[in-house]
Design a protein that fits this description.
By secondary structure, the chain is an alpha/beta fold. The chain has 12 helices and 21 strands. The protein folds into 3 domains: 117 residues, RNA methyltransferase domain (HRMD) like (Transcription Regulator spoIIAA), CATH 3.30.750.80; 66 residues, Archaeosine Trna-guanine Transglycosylase, Chain: A, domain 4 (Roll); 193 residues, Rossmann fold (3-Layer(aba) Sandwich). The protein is globular, with a radius of gyration of 23 Å. The termini are far apart.
């Protein structure tokens, strides 16, 4: 059993006084349809001012209960809805049921030699603004709003009741990291709970399994919570199509697609990432999997280089690959950046096809939620036609099992598998 550390036990308790709200008709309709956010401009009446983490109860014009959620006066997303239509007491038992339900959805993954996955996917698992990722016996809890701070003791207690872990690490979003006054001493990367016999922090990098492959992550300093878990099923698809192929993995980060391709029998795998620490982690991940005959026999190459420059250089060098994977970071942080992002996706498609053999497979993904699925796939096809290599689609994919989507704006991941003549 893990023990709660002082940083968590000293947090303030939630206020017992509820905030009563009324909202606009459009916001009421959205709430009833399952949208988890109430924006500041949608609030028409409010009983009193509140602090982050206060519970706000939303009523309709006839004083009927519509929902209850976490109030956050520091954000345009003023309320993150926890419960709607039917009233409920938000306490340890409520959190326990939410985590238990989410865990049941992920049960199939544990039968696939996988102990690295997303346990709680924020809004889509009924806990808006909170993410919990599992890496073997280390769990990472990431917050996107200070509204969760007064409820962390209940959340962590509920997590302990449903899961076994040695360490629970706290990560904070960029925005939340700047709100020191609302954090009550919490800091990014700190340990919230730990097993007494394991020490307060994990020793070194954490190793975990994904579909039988071993990967490392840095849950304290790594991007996101230490690894990009959402591409697991697309990596599996690449493994299934890589036998005897040469594979180029662009924006490779720590080599997820690269390892899967090698395990699938790829003869050559080239990984490109601008970050030297990322490519060094790729090399370590290769070593972690030397027990896999195909990985041991594959020829690996890593390049610490800008993706666009690397692709142009490869074209100049007449390098060609059977499979080209393009999995860039988010290109559009907001709506004003969508057109620029689409132009970048089109350029990537063009450059990727320049180094893809005739009849080869293009794998291109987007994690920009602001870019719609239609816009993304249209951009790829448009660029391919302009280069004279119209694509024949194999498959379009979206979110993995542990990244469920329950409302439109929650969808962000899309990926195209296609062949090019």
């Amino acid at each position: 059993m893990t023990e709660i550390l002082p940083a968590l036990s000293q947090l303030p308790s939630p206020s017992t006084q509820r905030i009563a709200l009324r909202i606009t008709a459009p916001a009421e309709r959205a709430l009833k349809q399952g949208h988890p956010w109430i924006f500041d401009q949608s609030i028409t009446e409010q009983s009193h001012k509140g602090a982050p983490g206060d519970l706000a109860v939303i009523f309709d014009d006839k004083r009927r209960f519509l929902g209850v959620g976490l109030y956050d006066p520091t954000s345009p997303i003023r309320v993150r809805v926890l419960q709607k239509i039917k009233p409920a007491t938000i306490d340890n038992n409520w959190f326990h049921e939410k985590i238990k339900t989410a865990d049941a959805i992920r049960a199939p993954l544990r039968k696939q030699e996988t102990d690295g996955y997303r346990l709680i996917h924020g809004e889509n698992d009924g806990l808006p603004g909170l993410v919990i990722d599992r890496y073997a016996e280390t769990f990472v809890l990431k917050l996107y709003t200070p509204a969760w701070v007064p409820h962390l003791k209940d959340v962590c207690a509920a997590l302990q009741q449903t899961q076994h872990f040695d360490h629970l690490i706290l990560r904070l979003s960029r925005t939340l990291n700047k709100q020191a006054d609302e954090l009550h001493g919490l800091t990014d990367g700190m340990t919230l709970t730990a097993s007494p016999d394991k020490g307060q922090t994990p020793e070194g990098l954490v190793l975990f399994k994904e579909n039988g492959l071993t990967f490392e992550c840095d849950p304290i300093n790594g991007q996101k919570t230490g690894f990009f878990l959402d591409q697991r099923e697309n990596r599996e698809r690449v493994r299934d199509m890589s036998e005897g192929k040469s594979v180029l993995n662009v924006f490779s980060y720590t080599g997820g697609f690269s390892l899967y391709a090698a395990d699938g029998g790829a003869k050559e795998v080239v990984s490109v990432d601008f970050s030297t620490p990322a490519t060094q982690a790729t090399l370590r991940n290769i070593q972690h999997n030397q027990n896999k005959p195909n990985v041991k026999n594959a020829k690996f190459e890593t390049l610490d280089q800008d993706a666009f420059e690397a692709l142009m250089q490869m074209k100049a060098d007449n390098r060609q690959f059977d499979i080209v994977i393009l999995d860039p970071p988010m290109f559009a942080q907001n709506q004003s950046q969508v057109e620029t992002a689409l132009a970048a996706y089109r350029r990537l498609t063009h450059l990727g096809l320049d180094v893809l053999k005739r009849g080869g497979i293009l794998v291109q993904a987007s994690c920009s939620s602001r870019v719609s699925t239609v816009e993304f796939f249209d951009a790829i096809h448009r660029s391919a036609r302009e280069t004279g290599r119209p694509l024949e689609e194999i498959e379009r994919t979206g979110h993995a099992l542990d990244h469920p989507i329950t409302y439109k704006e929650g969808a962000y991941l899309k990926c195209l598998f296609a062949t090019a003549p």
